Model the fold of this input.
Amino acid sequence: MPAVQVGNLLHVSGQLPFDDGRVMIAGSARTAIWPTAMPRRAACGIMLLAQINKALGDLHRVERIVKLGVFVNSAGSFTDQPKVANGASELMEQVFGEIGRHARSAVGVPTLPLGAAVEVDAIVAIRAG
Done:
C-alpha cells in the first residue's frame, strides 16, 4: 500500500526518486561531496507529496508532517546522511510552512530498491475530511 491511514495519522510508504517512471538518482554515497550533488527539491519529497495528495485528495488536509524517515544508500565511511535528507525536509517546510517542520531520522543502508540513492517515508497528521 502506498499509504495507510490509522486514525488521524497517514503512514506513507517509502518513496524512491522517480521521474517519468525511472529512478533518477541512483548509486551510493561515498564522499562528503555527494550530498551537494543532490537536487535541492528532493525527488523523494515530491513523490511523498504526490502520495499524500492521492491518499487525502487535498494537501490542505495535512495538519502536520510528523516525521520523515530517510534511508541513504551509502558506503560504510559516509556520515553525511542528514545533509542528504535536508532536501526532503526543506521541501516539506517550503510547501507547508511551520506545519512542515518535523522529526526525522536519516540512516545509511548498503542498498535500496532499484539501486536508488535515497528512499523517504513519512508519518503525517491529517484533519478530518
In short: Strands lie at 3-6, 9-15, 18-19, 22-23, 62-73, 103-109, 118-126. The chain has a mean pLDDT of 89. The first helix runs from residue 43 to 56.
